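Study this fold:
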Amino acid sequence: MRHWLRFMHAGRQGFGQLHGNTVHEWRGDMFGACEATGTIIALAELQPLTPSQPSKVIALWNNFKALGEKLSLPVPAEPLYLLKTPNSYLPHGRAIRAPRCAGKVVYEGELGIVIGKAAGGVTEDAALDHVFGYTCANDVTVADILNRDASFAQWVRAKGFDTFCPMGPVVATGLDAAQLRVVTRLNGEVRQDYPISDMRFSVAQLVSLISMDMTLLPGDVILCGTSVGVGSMKPGSQVEVEIAGIGCLANPYAPAGPAPAAPDINYLEPP
C-alpha cells in the first residue's frame, strides 16, 4: 500500500509518497512513468493540493442501500450520477466557504475512486485495471436548492459552489475498497459510519458502466455516494472524513469569502 500526495513547496508543484511525517518526492507522471528524486521534505513544510487534477468529478446518487431504504427510494437499474465542477475542488486543510446565497449546507462523507488509466467502454472484469487508488471526499451540497424549482432539479448548482468538493489528503493504492468504512465527524462528533460494502454498485461496476457513457481519464474521480447521517453545518464548524487505510480529510467551514485562486494552484484560497 502506498500513499501519494500532491503538494506545493517553495513556489512549485510536486508529488511524492507519504512516509510518516515526511514526503519522498517523485518526478514524472504519477499515473505513468515516474521515479523517486531522492529528495525528502517534511510534511509540515508542504501545502497539500487535491490528490489529482481531475478533468471531471462524477458523484453518485442513491448508491447505498441503507440511505436508499431510509428515504424509500426505488432501487436504481443503473448508476445515477452528476458532475462536480472544477471550481468546487478543494484540498485537505483549506476552508469550505459558505455560499453567497442563503440555504442549508450539508456535508456528505464519501469514498473517491481515482482513475489511473483511461477507461472508455471497459468491461467489469477489466475495470479495476483502470483504478489507481482511493481518496476521501466531502460532497458538500446546498440541500434546499435541489428541488426549489419544481420543473428542474438543480443538482449541479446545489453541489457546484466554490470549494464544495474537498478531496484528499492522499491517494492510497493497494486497497480492497469493499473492506473500507467511511467515518464523518462534525466538530469531533461522529455523524456517519458506514461500510463501502453496502454500495448498490461496486467499484468495478461503477467504472465499467460510467465508462460506457464517457471516457474516464487519468486523475478523474468518482465519488461513490453517501449513506445515512448526512447533516447540516454552520460557519465555524470542522468537518472530517476519515477512511482507515487512506487518512483523514479535514476542512473548516467558513463564512462566504473571496473566490479561490484559478487553476492550477489547484483551486486553493489565497494564502
